[in-house]
Amino acid sequence: MPSVAVIGAGISGLAAAYRLQQNGYQVQLFEAGSRTGGVIHSERAGGYLAEWGPNSIQDSSPHIRALIRELGLEGQCVAAKPSVNKRYIVRSGQLVALPMTPPALLRSRLFSPRAKLRLLCEPLIPARRAMGEESIAAFARRRFGPEVLEYVVNPFVTGIYAGDPEQLSVRYALPKVYELEQHYGSLFKAQLKSRKTRRAMAMSSASAETACSGTIFSFRGGMQTLPDALRQRLGKPVCLNTPVQQLTPTLNGWDVTVKEQRQHVDALVYTAPLYHLSTMGLPSTAEVQALADVQYTPISILVLGYRREQIGHPLDGFGMLVPAVEPCNIFGTLFSSSMFSGRAPDGHVTLTVFIGGARQPALASEPSAALLEVAQQDLHRLLGVAGEPTYMNHIFWPKAVPQYELGYGHKQAMIARLERQYPGFFMAGSYRQGVAVGDTLASGYEAAERLISYLDHRGVKVG
Questions:
Q1: Residue 356 lies in a domain
Q2: How many CB atoms lie within 10 A of CB 387?
Q3: What does the alpha-carbon distance between residue 243 and residue 25 come to, in Å, rounded to a whole number?
Q4: Residue 151 carries which DSSP code?
Q5: CA 10, 400, 226, 224: dihedral to nearest 10 degrees?
Q6: Residue 181, pLDDT above cutoff 80
Q7: In this predicted model, what pLDDT tens digit does every residue of 133-163 receive, in sequence order?
Q8: Domain range for 169
Q9: pTM of the prediction?
């Protein structure tokens, strides 16, 4: 039976190991930490459910739906409430709902008349055909104008990457947006086309709808349900508290050194963060050093519980995003108990607050008491929060999200060169094709498929 090692037990590593095991390979999954799931972590206490990382999954890949079925998790899925369709942006210290239709756009207080007119001209702006990467900020200014950049693109990009849109590459950080412009010439035209396609798909698949088929969903026990189910299915091959000390290529595979002992495998999948790559003992090539230097932003997450009467705002939406031009210390807040049921005791609500990122990296590392104070100030002003929280949970991620900055195309090419340079070495993770849960899961699956194809080509077959 061919033997395979997977390095890192985040969602991409778990997905790769699961896919390989399902195809008959002998898998060992090495994780330096004491748990699986990476940044996915759920904690329940006092009737509150805190998410230390992603709060939901977007149903954007057939891999997700198939995996949920195979793991028997359909009954654990919780669809997001209809209220999540409303998303708030802070402007002049007030929460303003993001307009989702042309009539709502014309009535919205979010944009000035000048900005609305500029936005309506978007279909007339030609697509960019120049060589070289363009920043998300430059793309937004060109297509929508500066006001939409400040009050929509900036906060949404910060919500996804906790990064700076002036530095992030639109081609690699938002590849679907980039491709839509290249294909349709206009994002408005692309939106009209995709709306028709989604309507037709919804009609054809309506009979197969489950709670996991919604655009956004989670699990009754929180996001931790997914990595826990994968770990249980994998069984003994999951080796926790087992950091890899050395990866050594051999004539017929790889030697993996853990706990001072070498184990031989036919191939391996590396899914740990890029900044750990230089510690794996690989020859110090330019690619290894450059990839280890990819920036990761720091984030602090505060999960706060309140009695419902402590909050003046109705919390009737997904949450609020704060543009960089607004004088706030938080850059976003999810109305977690408005998104999913079971996130707070009866009569209480849960807010998940994000601080730091590229906007204020030093603030993210402040102690819990200091972060609570600055968060409370912003929440009082924006949501009418009064009094102390009845629950608090704080997690600090010093290196939370990889940044797909300008020039990231060269980093992707370096990853591909490393895979060619070291036969039987494959890479997957949030740095490969997106930071969302679905993207990282798909990255693990695809690395597993490339590994299977590689071993098959070498004549190393199962059975």
A1: no
A2: 12
A3: 22
A4: I
A5: 120
A6: yes
A7: 999 999 999 999 999 999 999 999 999 999 9
A8: 100-123+133-206
A9: 0.93
